[in-house]
Specification:
The protein is an alpha/beta fold. The protein is 60% helix and 8% strand. The chain has 4 domains: 214 residues, Growth Hormone, Chain: A (Up-down Bundle), CATH 1.20.1250; 216 residues; 261 residues, 3-Layer(aba) Sandwich (Rossmann fold), CATH 3.40.50.150; 166 residues, no CATH class. An 8-stranded mixed beta sheet has the order 7-6-5-8-9-11-10-12, with helices on both faces. Strands 1-2-3-4 form a 4-stranded antiparallel beta sheet.
């Protein structure tokens, strides 16, 4: 078999190896959590196993050659390596079945919830990934030994093995991060890659039974002996390079998160850039006709210089990514092109320095190779030491140093490690420089790096990745960013998990404070106050007694403070993953009622899933206020498994509240979240704080959720009244207008399709893609059939207004309608229409409509009033498809369960559609859908319906039919008049 075929198979094993690493990390995130300690532990176990495998299997390759030489027969290296690869595949196939057993053992062992529990779980994780990681360490030593023709061929062959294996890992990083997990789920990826490894192992084993060792595989063929201590110097260089590159990759991922947003796609892209450029560097070594002795010295110093120069460019990464993003439209179709351009841009910036580092190990191998029979052992020792350096980089530079240093300081540590490696190489390869010269070079390099000014925090935390269109400052340079002109942060910290800042920001003319995590605001004390306060108060209103609460995510502490301020509250446990957020908490005490000084509140720095999983108490309210689900790790808190865990931790009348957003998302992501929620909770309601923020409520007791008398009694209590009054909510109906999907509507809809699971994390990818596009979404239309009947029956506002027997006092109606429109909740238009039908000449209504933006409120409520009529007038005129389409838009966009539209009125529009026989044909699809709606059947998805009727309307217009003057609202526009 030609050698290129073996190299191609090596690329395949690199692909599967990276796929395993990414997938195992997600599995073990379920066991250990998504916090920085867990990430460091998983990476440490993987790298530790890999390092051990390099050494052990390198020694095994040498032993096989020695035994074969003693017996004067070929060494069966390829057959042995094939068995090793097949064993990796078998382990991968079994992994999805082994993992539940390990997780069950974690729960069953009486270890508590502290350091002991984490240590035991880490040991259990080691049982899962250290054995296969060790086996994966056999690729480079075995193939270097098996495929080398002679000693002079060894360097080129070794570089090719390293390059092709790494190139395969590059493709694996992109494929797994962008597609495989999304398509196949975690178990599917492992099963597919397991079969691949078994097949590759079989191919190697089959060839190994046929192929004899090269004729010149003679242990007497040797290179000149190394000088005493030279091997230790080369090992130190390999260690330092491994340490530095792992730290630099970690920093690059963190800076990319601040520049692109911390999504799964960002992580996969940065890893792919590093891996591909390392492969290029190794390939370059393989292409060299001869290797000068001092080449490794030049490569190391150039790599050091490249990364030192990059120091001054990285802080402006958020600005340049914004410039790149401004070149692409906010359409889903541009997503691949945008990330392709982003990958190429990163490769252009980082590539030269990374590629140089990728040449170091093959060059060190060239210097270390002594004899043919030792090639595998030498490669194993070299790569084992380099991987130990990577392990140190992951645990020390990627985790521990962040307890004391910020990003730019850790970056400098890595650059200094490269300088030390370059000095060691200089001493070894160019002895004429001398110890004094090398010392001067090292001191000069360290002093130069120490003189670098700190990175400007205002650049890093700008969040410019959320500005997707060209602004006036876009092409004027980083210093023109308005974010850069803000005051310096009140607080800033790069902790092992996140980059956290506290900013003083003017909102509505008042000073407020924002908590900014990885460049994205996760709460503002002014603009987000209502969201954070209602997220705490609404579920507390429904409980029998709010004594024990569990809050996921501290943010500004407003939610925890609101819960603790209730008289009956005994304890509030807050799980916060970021040490920086916990350290920043005192900066918000003036806005949240002094949370850090409140004895009722305890902050646990932990991954929320792990913290809740280890809890044995029941909670009356569990409130989940994480970051957006496109942020890596956050998607776990939206999974079916986590929701089921939360459900089990609720008291008998407990309520689970989940924040979600309608901005920077997609209809598919919204429906995926709602489907997943309804798959766990039998009783679901959705409340809207405003046009962008939702509260998903899951109840264990449906009766308590509908007991309006009890809710009204609790609302009237002094503690609740005072809390709601801070948001200018003084009466219960003002609060009830925030209910968008009454209890049971989402359950009655029977939404079909896949759900988001820890083992098939669809939301991370859907939300990440939608975030890049950056459009707004709406809740799925559920104003039909059984959902509509349930909504009209169980709407709390509708139930409240029934006491007035159709004669709602004008002041009450005015106040709750004004609240709906002031907050821009979806019910605004329908409630204003109901007021218009009851009192069309009301001066208060006229003032309200005139105050709303857009200037279309009055004609809109007139149009919507048609849907509240009992029957159409007998002489209603015929209309065209465009008017019927406009009516469809109005019906779907402004339907409210508290003021339900009559579906028969929509049918009236389509029955009157058409002025000519040709136009009647264009109205037929809409008529069929309207008939389906009236019959109570679920119509096609609203978007699909609108697309079909829009096409029909355009078709009719092209025949010369006059277009109606009013056009439908833009997709995703706020549903307020």
């Amino acid at each position: 078999m030609p050698r290129w075929v073996f190299l191609a198979l090596t690329a395949v094993t690199g692909f599967s190896g990276l796929a395993y690493e990414v997938t195992w990390q997600k599995y073990l995130g379920i066991l250990l959590g998504a916090h920085s300690e867990a990430t460091a532990a998983v990476l440490g176990l993987f790298l530790g196993g890999l390092s051990l495998g390099y050494r052990v299997l390198g020694a095994l390759a040498r032993a096989l050659v020695a035994r074969a030489n003693r017996r004067n027969r070929p060494a069966r290296l390829l057959a042995t390596y094939g068995a090793i690869e097949a064993a990796v595949g078998v382990w991968s196939l079994a992994f999805p079945s082994l993992f539940p057993l390990v997780r069950a053992a974690s729960v069953a062992l009486p270890t508590g919830d502290g350091a002991l529990a984490f240590s035991v779980d880490t040991a259990l994780a080691a049982l899962l990934i250290v054995p296969p990681a060790m086996l994966m360490g056999g690729t480079i030593p075995f193939l270097t030994q098996a495929l080398a023709r002679n000693l002079s061929d060894a360097t080129r062959l070794h570089a090719l093995v390293y390059a092709t294996n790494t190139a395969g890992a590059f493709v694996g990083a992109l494929a797994t991060g962008f597609a495989l997990i999304r398509w196949l789920g975690l178990a599917g990826v492992l099963h597919a890659m397991g079969l691949v490894n078994v097949a590759v192992g079989a191919a190697f084993a089959l060839q190994g039974t046929r192929r004899r060792a090269p004729a010149d595989l003679d242990p007497a063929r040797t290179a000149p002996a190394l000088a005493p201590g030279a091997a230790a110097v080369y090992a130190a260089i390999a260690f330092l390079v491994g340490f530095a590159m792992m730290v630099l990759q970690t920093i690059a991922i963190r800076i990319a998160g601040l520049s692109f947003g911390s999504s799964e796609y960002t992580f996969a892209m940065v890893v792919a850039v590093f891996v591909s450029c390392i492969a290029l560097g190794s390939t370059a070594v393989a292409a060299l006709p001869r290797i000068p002795r001092a080449l490794v010295v030049a490569v190391l110093w150039l790599s050091w210089a490249g990364f030192a120069a990059l120091y001054f460019a990285l802080e402006t990464g958020p600005y340049w990514v914004h410039v790149l993003r401004s070149l692409f439209r906010d359409q889903d179709a541009t997503f691949p092109a945008y990330y392709t351009a982003a990958f190429l841009g990163l490769a252009l910036v980082l590539g030269p320095a990374v590629a140089l580092s990728g040449a170091v190990l093959p060059l060190l191998f060239h210097a270390l190779r002594r004899e043919v029979g030792e090639l595998g052992a030498q490669a194993g020792r070299l790569y084992g030491t380099n991987t130990l350096g990577s392990l140190a980089g992951a645990l020390i530079g990627g985790y521990a140093l962040f307890y004391w240093l910020d990003l730019h300081q850790v970056y400098r540590v890595a650059v200094c490690a490269l300088a030390l490696a370059a000095v060691l190489a200089t001493l070894r390869e160019t002895p004429r420089v001398g110890l004094a010269g090398a010392g001067v070079a090292l001191i000069g390099a360290l002093l130069l790096v120490a003189s670098f000014r700190p990175w400007r925090v205002t650049y890093l935390v700008s969040g410019a990745f959320r500005e997707r269109t060209p602004e006036v400052w876009t092409y004027q340079g980083p210093s023109a960013m308005p974010h850069h002109k803000w005051k310096q942060p009140l607080f800033y910290d790069d902790d092992p998990n996140s980059s956290v800042a506290v900013l003083s920001v003017p909102v509505r003319g008042r000073e407020s404070r924002s908590i900014v995590v990885n460049g994205k605001s996760d709460g503002n004390t002014e603009a987000d106050y209502a969201t954070m306060a209602l997220a705490a108060l609404v579920p507390s209103l429904f409980t029998e007694r709010m004594e024990q609460a569990f809050v996921i995510g501290f943010g500004t502490g407003v939610s925890a403070g609101a819960l603790a301020a209730l008289d009956e509250t005994k304890s509030v446990t807050v799980a916060e993953i970021s040490r920086g957020v916990v350290d920043a908490a005192p900066y918000f005490d003036a806005y949240n009622g002094g949370v850090t000084e409140n004895a009722k509140i305890s902050i646990v720095r932990s991954d929320a899933y792990r913290a809740l999983h280890k809890e044995r108490r029941s909670f009356d309210v569990i409130l989940s206020e994480p970051s957006n689900p496109w942020v890596t790790g956050v998607e776990m808190l939206f999974s079916r498994e986590f929701l089921a865990e939360a459900y089990q931790r609720l008291s008998a009348k407990g309520v689970y509240c989940q924040w979600y957003h309608l901005y920077e998302t997609s209809p598919a992501a919204v429906e995926l979240v709602l489907r997943t929620y309804a798959s766990v909770f039998d009783h679901v309601a959705v409340w809207s704080v405003n046009q962008a923020d939702l509260l998903l409520l899951g109840f264990r007791d449906a009766d308590a959720a509908l007991d309006l008398a009890r809710i009204e009694e609790r609302f009237a209590r002094a503690d609740f009244s005072a809390a709601f009054a801070k948001m200018r909510i003084f009466e219960l109906p003002q609060l009830l207008v925030h209910e968008t999907l009454p209890l049971g509507v989402a359950n009655a809809a029977g939404l079909t399709g896949p759900v988001h699971s820890l083992y098939h994390p669809r939301l991370a990818f859907e939300a990440g893609r939608a975030f890049v596009v950056g459009k707004a979404a709406v809740l799925p239309f559920l104003g039909f059939g059984e959902p509509a009947r349930v909504g009209a029956r169980d709407s709390l506002l509708h139930r409240y207004l029934e006491r007035f027997a159709g004669a709602v006092p004008a002041p009450i109606r005015a106040r709750f309608t004004a609240e709906a429109c002031r907050r821009e909740v979806p019910e605004c238009a329908a409630l204003a229409t109901a007021w218009y039908r009851e009192a069309p000449g009301s001066p208060a209504l006229a003032r309200l409509l005139d105050s709303l933006p857009g200037g279309e409120a009055v004609p809109l409520v007139r149009e919507l009033s048609w849907f509240l009529e009992a029957a159409p007038p007998a002489d209603a005129p015929r209309i065209g498809p465009r008017a019927a389409l406009n009516a469809t838009h109005r019906y779907l966009d402004y339907y409210a369960h508290s003021v339900p539209f009559e579906p028969a009125r929509l049918l009236d529009f389509w029955e009157r559609c058409g002025r000519t026989p040709e136009a009647v044909g264009g109205c037929a699809p809409g008529l069929r859908n309207a008939q389906q709606l009236v019959a109570g059947e679920r119509p096609p998805a609203a978007v699909e319906w609108l697309a079909r009727t829009a096409a029909d309307g355009a078709h009719s217009a092209s025949r010369g039919e006059p277009a109606e003057p009013r056009t439908p609202p833009a997709s995703g526009a706020p549903r307020a008049p």
